[in-house]
Amino acid sequence: DIQVTQSPSSLSASVGDRVTITCRASQSISTYLNWYQQKPGKAPKLLIYAASSLQSGVPSRFSGSGSGTDFTLTISSLQPEDFATYYCQQTYSIPPITFGQGTRLEIK
Amino acid sequence: QVQLVESGGGVVQPGGSLRLSCAASGFPFSSYAMHWVRQAPGKGLEWVAFIRYNGINKYYADSVKGRFTISRDTSKNTVYLQMNSLRPEDTAVYYCAKDAGCTSTVCYFFYFDSWGQGTLVTVSS
After folding, report:
1. Given a cut of 90, is residue B105 above it in pLDDT?
2. Which among B50, B95, B115 has CB closest to A94?
């Protein structure tokens, strides 16, 4: 199975900061990598699919990049509503589909 | 707009069974693949099962293979998860999700663009 590892596991930042979260796959997955945001008690929300495509309705401060084994999610200027947990997901080799362990983004 | 509503969760004893339902609306249900994803309390997301638009192609996580069965009823716009031989480690919120990248015409990228609110399954004696 393909493993995906996120870093960091948690992150403290301030409103207006630029934040980057990294996801590394255990083998090449081309651009079969998605990013989700989850707030406490809520379902996950799709942000980025196919590594760099912005889902409709998602603010443009979110961006994704990468291919092969290394990927990043960048938030260009943190807003109060962005404090949440973020997950990457690989869909190159199915089954199984695998998620990263999550990155908790907290207010500094 | 797209709506996914899960139901059927509850408390069940180890070894018991439960059937979850996910009622879909707001999109052509028969054209899209669907998934179940679960999240144990305080833990991350775990993919559970996939079913293609035609109900024929199905995949499962190793942790549930042989115990869980995914199915769909196009006439009712509903996807199901039959869970048998339940274990305490199956305790989780179960979400259904629509796969925008896997349709009746193309199935190339898989990504979950809509999710239900989740239903809690607790396996405990």
Report:
1. no
2. B50
